[in-house]
Amino acid sequence: MLDSKVPSGPLAEKWSKHKFEMKLVNPANKRKFTIIVVGTGLAGAAAAASLAELGYNVKTFCYQDSPRRAHSIAAQGGINASKNYQNDGDSVFRLFYDTIKGGDYRAREANVYRLAEVSGNIIDQCVAQGVPFAREYGGLLDNRSFGGAQVSRTFYARGQTGQQLLLGAYSALNRQIEKGKVTSYTRHEMLDVVKIDGEAKGIITRDLVTGEIEAHEGHAVLLCTGGYGNVFFLSTNAMGCNVTAAWRAHKRGAYFANPCYTQIHPTCIPVTGDHQSKLTLMSESLRNDGRVWVPKTIELAEKLRKGELKPKDIKEDDRDYFLERKYPSFGNLVPRDVASRNAKEMVDEGRGVGKTGVAVFLDFAEAIQRLGRDVVEAKYGNLFDMYYQITDENPYEQPMRIYPAVHYTMGGVWVDYNLMTTVPGLYCLGEANFSDHGANRLGASALMQGLSDGYFVIPYTVGDYLAKIGNFKPVDKNNPAFEQTRKEVEERINKLLSLNGSKTVDDIHKKLGHIMWEYCGMARTAEGLQKAKGLIQDLRKEFWTDARVLGANEELNMSLEKAGRVADFLELGELMVDDALNRNESCGGHFRLESQTEEGEAKRNDEEYAYVAAWQYNGDNQPEILHKEPLIFENVKLTQRSYK
Amino acid sequence: MSAHMNLTLKVWRQKNSNDKGQFVTIQAKDIADDMSFLEMLDVVNEDLTRKGEDPIYFDHDCREGICGMCSLVINGRPHGPKYGITTCQLHMRSFHDGQTIVIEPWRASAFPVLKDLAVDRTSFDRIQQAGGYVNINTGGPQDANNILIPKRVADEAFESATCIGCGACVAACKNASAMLFVSAKISQFALLPQGQTERYERAQAMVDQMDAEGFGNCTNTGACEAECPKGIKLTNIARMNREYFTAKFFRQEDVHQH
Amino acid sequence: MSKSKPVLTSSLGRKLIMSLTGLFLCTFLIVHLIGNLQLFKDDAGYAFNNYAYFMTHFTPIKVVSYLLYLSIIIHAVYALILTTKNKAARPIGYDQYDGKANSAWNSRNMGILGTVLLIFIVTHMQNFWYQYKFGTTPYVEYRTEVSTGNQEVLKLDDVPSDYNGYVIYPEPGGIEVVKSKDLYRQVEETFKNPLLVGLYVLGMAALSFHLIHGFQSAFQTIGFNHRRYNGIIRTIGVWVFGIIIPILFASMPLYFYFIK
């Protein structure tokens, strides 16, 4: 039975009570502990800096050439906090409620409440670090509204909020590196967790430049390694984003929770061809002023696709502003899963636009008329430029074409209230864990979670664990577990390097992406998922027999880097399909065609599926074992989500 | 449908930092004009891999112009022939069929080549570590709205803070100077009230580290500003100079001891 | 990390020296030009020679002129140091470098322009300063009738017997006699040489390009960059130092070669 370790007592007091009950490490003893932090995005950098400030020795690892390049940097829209600066009725409870509801009642109440509770501190912290948030003329912080909420609680720095927050965390990290409390390892990829007596006591990494396989010891290991959206090949993730660290931890005993919960973001630039390497997100904030539409008839859509008509030739009466029509109260600001599904529905009906017909319009003509071009440019200028660079179309003059794309993964490594995985001493933070967003994440909440975990949760909870192990001695690096694990990693690398078939790693990865998108994307069926399972198994065989990996270990070797990551995606993909098959209900980003309301909305089955599906690895090519953590809602009433 | 083209690439190949390196000519066939420049290189690399040849190593990650990992001097221009974008945002419609494209790594002694087109930019990190932060711990700060910051100041600080640390300024500068990069961070904190307490230590510490890394000097040619994908302004360098000279001539502060 | 590095060995400090010496040299140009404009006076060099004597014998001016020579040397030496450092910062250059896409030619070639200027300055000093002080500059005697202003000019090739630097005394009949070195004639003679005229014009062209960039660059280096004043600085840099001053200077050899 999974123990979520949620403290008892009223919801609003749980975290305070827990903070008091947790054991503390004496300041003089903190320097006797070493903590390993893998990944230097918002969660990792924030955690590493905060822990080093407390006095722990920290080692950070990232595969990029600098901690500053972690993909948190690409988050555009903003970060939520229940400051209620706008006097529009926000509160901790409302943020909590919106997040639980937005997640379609598949998140743990206590975690989400804590997230809402510390959200305000995050803003204070970031402002103190010198993060230049947008301000009003009076000098106060500005807010904007975001999908899934009816209050303005999103703090932002133009369209580069993630960048500014990450650079803030990176600066805090740099300060500790300068002080000698953090040792930063860049261009290092974590390839395994080392366990001693069942507890995480180190990691194995590969120096991507020299190829050296290194063992690093620590009293606790924090995985802050982001999401696994790249299992779809095409996503808004960075090219290097991968599941390897999380997946290796999974194979060492960390349960993997709700892998099928993936967020398909509604406003991305559509795919143009097979050569495409990634998809670019257009911030959700665009939906504040942009109106989503397609032509009312298939005939008009066809003419648009052929270029016989221009968007502006379509008369107002012939346009279907389908989100405004179907969801009058939230309109274009419905949550992401709803917006995405509706776009897909329009395309499936044959009313899609653009050359490929796989897109809908996001139109700013009305906003430009209402606010003036200057105001629109000030708000969204950089996004419009980005769109223009990629598509060669000017969004000031014609509507943007958008289509959903894989953006975020709500699923991830299972953690308890303390963010500890099922392996003692192994923690998981940020997008890499499963904890706070249920089946769908609201916009501007990812940054909030990453920083909450890193700045305000882990510094307390990791201390509790270290105080309890009470052993101030350094981890014994001569323990055979290190050598054993290193050997296993080396064997795996040699096996990859021996692959000399006819397919490139990207060929296989693209195939996997197609399978996942087709059968485990925006709409899923039992039949499709069964088929996908077989296809993935075949593809995995193909990889291990017919892939080609060039070069040697002792060099910068991108074939090898990719191969290791894709090999793990091939295993994860199957688990995602299993999880999606198991969850015979629709909720949030997981939409089973078998389970929908008459109006075509996601229909949950709370009697049978109000649980977290946590999967336990059970050996190669063995079905994983499902553990259920029941979700108990004491403070909100489960209702059919409605944004009408 | 999109137009297709054939290109001749003259690419810098170098096995590792000890290798001398040389230009190698590679044909890129059937390139669609709506590909990004890096997707074009992906296609070339897939071809090379199928032929059993080592693919061209280049740094890249987010591919949406924000992580700062991609680099490349393309036909003599950092991030290619267009202004205000990174290499990953450059599309092949900026080139024409039959064109020869010369692709080189950033060139600076402070950016040693690691392999092919990838360089080591950890010198940038060390400059930031020398003082690119506000000395506060997690957990203490007052309410975010307690300090008012005029919108104009916040906006200007933001403009400086948008630097992505790609190094195009160094690559573009005839002297391989990093002053635009360094001054952007110094400016951000010199402008904001939160940065005031260590304003003068910071300027000195970061300039010292910049010099120690072996970057060149500023001739105010403005090449850095012109090639910066984020439009970081030369005014930042003037402000850095001001901060530094003020610190040196009119203030007591020296760099931190710890 | 302990103490910060001394300012004058830092990159910014070195640039500051370039900036301050450069601006000082700019102010000198104005003074030098105003004096030299007297070459255009049709007084057989009377005013110009007076001016030349004043400039070489008034103590405060002498001090400033030594500062000036020092500035030229420091400016050149630091340029050399900076260039060496800059070369070391990029030991391997680009196969292709499209500088014109991002910067002005003169801003990238301040060193070459500066070298031309240095050659010009050395030649110029040899032509006039050295000749005036140690060389073969001829002499002149001006006899002015005070009541009418009528002037008689006697060109002397040998040093006058009562000459001790600069001689001025009244003679009976209301005549003022002035005897001095005739730098004016030196100028006339020098600018009969077309090669030197060419070099002087080239030197002024280099000065123009050097200062169009250098003047405003110096302000940028000392940290003076303000949108309210940048326009003025740029205007002064381009029009005063980049165009008017070099043209007026260049017109002197041309005037003597073609018109005089």
Our count of helices of chain C gives 8
The helix content of chain C, as a percent range, equals: 55-70%
Range of helix content of chain A: 25-40%
How many E strands of chain A? Answer: 22
Strand elements of chain C, count: 4
| CATH topology type of the domain at 264-407 in chain A | Flavocytochrome C3, Chain A, domain 1
Oligomeric state of the chains present here: heterotrimer
- Structural class label of chain C: alpha+beta
SS-based structural class of chain A? alpha+beta
For the residues shown, what is the average pLDDT of chain A? 95
Mean pLDDT of chain C equals 94
Q: Which strand-content bin applies to the residues of chain A?
A: 15-25%
List the chains of the largest interface with their residue counts: A-B, 85 and 82 residues
Let me know the CATH homologous superfamily of the domain at 264-407 in chain A: Succinate dehydrogenase/fumarate reductase flavoprotein, catalytic domain
CATH architecture assignment of the domain at 264-407 in chain A: Alpha-Beta Complex
Biggest sheet: strand arrangement of chain C? 2-1-4-3
Runs of chain C with pLDDT <50, length 5+? none
Radius of gyration of chain A: 24 Å
Q: Radius of gyration of chain C from the CA trace? A: 22 Å
